[in-house]
Structure formats: structure tokens, C-alpha cells
Amino acid sequence: MKKRILAVFLAVAALTCSLSGCGGTTDQGSTPSDENLPSSEANHGNEITVGIAQDLDDSLDPYQMTGAGTREVMFNVFEGLVKPDSDGNYVCAVASDCDISDDGLTYTFTLRDGVVFHNGAACTTDDVLYSFETCAATSVTSAVVEALSAVTDTVVDGNQIVMTLSEPNPDFISYVSNVSIVPAGYADQASQPVGTGPFKFVSRSAQENIILERHEEYYGEGASLDKVTFKIYEDANALFTALDSGSLDLVARLTTDQVNNLTNGYTVLEGTMNTVQALYLNNAAAPFDNELVRQALCYAVDVDAIMDIIAEGHGTKVGSSMYPAFGKYFDADLADAYPYDPDKAKELLAEAGYEDGFSFTIKAPSNYQQHVDTAVVLVEQLKQVGVTAQIEQVDWNTWLTDVYAGRNFEATVVGFDSSVLNASGMLARWVSDNKKNMINYNNPEYDQTYAAAQTTYDDAEQTALYKQCLQILSDTAANVYLQDMANLVAINPKLEGFQFYPLYVMDLSLLHFVE
Length: 515
Hints:
Residues 1-42 have low confidence and may be disordered. The strands form five sheets. The protein has an eight-stranded mixed β-sheet. The longest helix has 18 residues, at 2-19. It is 30% helix and 22% strand. Helix 3 packs across helix 4. The protein is globular. It contains 15 helices and 22 strands.
């Protein structure tokens, strides 16, 4: 009964906001009988349409893309010498073998025979060298560039590429996975990307769709589907309507409310988002430049209630910038570092000079319903300690340019992911001079601890230092950390093979129709 009441509260609050101008896998459903499905299902033509909530980056160049949603789609187009699997292991891809010397300094990659680019050209060691050199020079991912800078020597011996590092780096293989192998000298990656993956790029229409087709000359087992169309819906209601009508075969990251209202008989699967959702605070803007204020907000927010309201309890609490899929780096104890305590919040606000509270704006990306719903609940909870928050919903492109790149915001609700399965993928962005540090976090102790983690090659010591970084973010309340949200996926029940990954990717090569 409590969850039902909370759900009604959320719906009313969301309506009020709208009217006032606020700008591991479990099967959660069953396979329905054919009479519940749209008649068009019988003639699928071995093609599917996937609904996504945001357009892709302006550039589809693998070394220039920044958006998690872009990487999610292009995971099917680009591959590295190695790539992650659904269990979080790195497996051979363009390379057929990887040998690491006992001292951890030398990596020998054997180029796989028969790898063909989407433009028909054979992949050679020249392409591999070009890819690494280009990535090191142009990648927007600073952690990858830093890791590649540790390569002191690269030798080609037949079909082998031998790389020597200045110091051992237990995470080096994860960075190698982030170097997409592309044709040497090809100049049109931004608009006509060419890789080696199981799907090849066909076309893109901004704000409308992106179309991929099966790469017939793929070296491996290859994709079962002939064609995939990613259709873009930046309006959550339009996305749900298309899904429920059967126009879409697959949609990920649904809300529990959307799942509960789904009538088309689709199967619903549950995984995790592999993101850290938080109320991200601009640490350079008053009053969030005051640590006491940030700590007060942490005590004022009831994360368990948020999870109950927006997801019927699904999701996992996090207390810092790490999500559970990272295993040894994730510190579950930090999730309870700030127990819900409105009185403590008021005390801290008074100590900071805000005994009468203050007002601020939360800029929320309108295409992500979970973040908007979370913002609605946050507004109500913060009222209880005298803090007035208003929601300004912005489209995704505006969020990227104004909030993320321009840092023109007070607070925002969003989720951050990692492109690699190592701690630096989540923690590098909060180093004071990192260009991805959109909250303007500036903490010398954090910078020093992170730098120490990057220069030690003892795994236990490095893990301890990364956890110390997480502790610093928690102690200083860099943000109001919330959860790794549940990833609810609705899929045509005639499709099988969907797998959740510990990264923000969607592997469509595994999907196939079952008649």
C-alpha cells in the first residue's frame, strides 16, 4: 500500500511540475501468447527497431565521441584488439591472442587472420599502429591517452605487435580495449564510421535514426540480424507509445511505471544501468562551494524513499562515484555514510549560514524520465529542511552544451558511467584539472591520492588508493550520491539473446528471432 501511495504522489508532483512550467539478469515478465502481439510481428524480415532516448554525438569518430548513448550504439560497429564480454572479462577481438610478460611490461598482440573493415579493406598491422597513434593524439578520454603514453616502444614482427611499457600497469588491457581499430588514413570517421564490428554503419538522420546492417565479412560468428534501426525519441511519452504499439522491438532503461503500464505482452528483463546517479552539484557556485551545505543536502535526502517511489525499490544505493559492477573498487559501506536525518541537515545549514534555507535550480535532461522523476522527489524532500529547488527540464543537446560542457548550472540529476572496466574510468573526471570535471570539484588531497593510484602498480595498494578517493568524495560530499538504477528492458518475446554487460553497452550481435 505504501508503494502505491508513493507512486500516486510522484504522478501528482510530476503533473504539478509540468503545469507550472518546470522547464546480472532477471526475467520480470513472461512470454505471452501470439494473440497478445501486434500482427506485424509475424513478418519481421530479420530486422529490428530499437528505441533510444537521445541522439548520438555530432561526431561518430571513436576517438571523439563522449556520450554514453553514442558508445552504446557504436559498440556494435567498432572493436579493439580485445573487447569486454558480458561477464566483465576481456576477450580477444581483432587480435587472436594476447601474451603478457611475467614482469608485466611487454604485451604481444597477434593480429587475427581474415579481419576485414566495413569498407572491404583487409586489416593489417599498419592499421593497428595508426589506430593507437591516432587515439593517443586525439582521444577525448584522458585516462586512455595517459595509459598509452606509458608505451615506450612498439615493434611489429610479422603479424604481431609488441608493446613495451615503462612500468607495469594492471589496467593496461582495459585501455587497449578502448582503442578502436580503424583503417589507416581514413578521414570520414565522424560522419561515415568504418570499423571491424559485427554491424556496419549505413546511415544517420539527426534527431531521427541511425541504421546498421550486418557485416557479412565479419571474422567471427557474426550477427544473426540483417538490420537494426535505432529510432530516436527524446520525448519519453512518445517513446513509450511507440513501444506499447509494437512499433519498437527493444527499449532499455524503462521506468517501473512504464513497465507496469505496458500492454503489448513484451518480455521485461532487469539488469542494472551501470551508472552512478546523483544530484551533481556545481562546487564552484554558491552555496555549493560550501562543504557544509553539500553535506546538509546529503542528510536531507532519503535515497531508500527515492528508490521506492521511482522504481518500487529496484536499484542499488551508492555512496560515491562507483557502481557495484566494479567489484573490488565498490565500497558498499559508503552508501550509508549520510543516513536520512533532516534535523542534522538543518543544523549544518544553520552552521553554514543558511538557517532560512536557500533556492536553486536542478537542470534535468527531459529525455531521461528516471532522472526527471528523481528530481521531482528530491524537490519534495528538500522542502522538509527549508531548501527550495525548482526543476528546469532541458533537451539532451542543451544539457550537453550548457551543463556538461559549459558548466552553466547549479545542480543536475544524471548518471555517469565508465567506458573501461577499471576504477580510473569513474574517478579521473573529478581530478581538478580534468576537462570532464563538470562539477568543478577541486580537492588537492583527492588529486594527490588519485595520482598515487595511477603511479603504483601493486594491485592491492592501487585498490586501496582508489577506495580512498571514493572516501574523500563521500567525506566532502562532492555530490549527493543516489543509486545505480535498475535497467528494465522490454523486448519482443520472439527475440532471444539479450545480455546485460557491466558497461554501458548494448550488444545486438547476440539477438536472434525464435519462431
